[in-house]
Amino acid sequence: MSAQPIFLSRPETSGVLHERVVSQPVRVEETLSSERLLNGRREILISHGDRVYRLRHTSNDKLILTK
């Protein structure tokens, strides 16, 4: 099965979008298990830019992400 071309757009300094064709598949996402991320804890802090988020694993087996 051959990969379909993927079109990516990016803004240039002139404000005009230029498209290019990528013939290789682009990996958009990678799955990371919550068990691996939390590593046995019920809660972790995640730094993103200048903010800190709290990821909690609740007693109802849900994940809650808050600022």
Description:
The chain has a single domain, classed as Ribbon (Complement Module, domain 1). The chain has 67 residues and is mainly β. 7% of the residues lie in helices and 43% in strands. The longest helix has 5 residues, at 34-38. It has one helix at 34-38, and strands at residues 6-11, 17-22, 43-48, 51-57, 63-66. Strands 3-4-5 form a three-stranded antiparallel β-sheet, with no helix packed on it. Strands 1-2 form a two-stranded antiparallel sheet.
What proportion of the residues is helical, as a percent range? under 10%
**Highest-level CATH class:** Mainly Beta
Number of domains: 1
Distance between the termini: 43 Å
Query: Which range does the strand content fall in?
Result: 35-45%
* Separate helix tally: 1
Rg, rounded, reads 19 Å
Number of strands: 5
What about the largest sheet?
Answer: 3 strands, antiparallel
Regions with pLDDT < 50 over 5+ consecutive residues? none
Placed side by side, the strands forming the largest sheet appear as: 3-4-5
Which architecture would the CATH scheme give at its second level? Ribbon
- What string gives the helices and strands in order? EEHEEE
InterPro entries: Hemin_uptake_protein_HemP
Organism: Pseudoxanthomonas sacheonensis
Protein name: Hemin uptake protein HemP
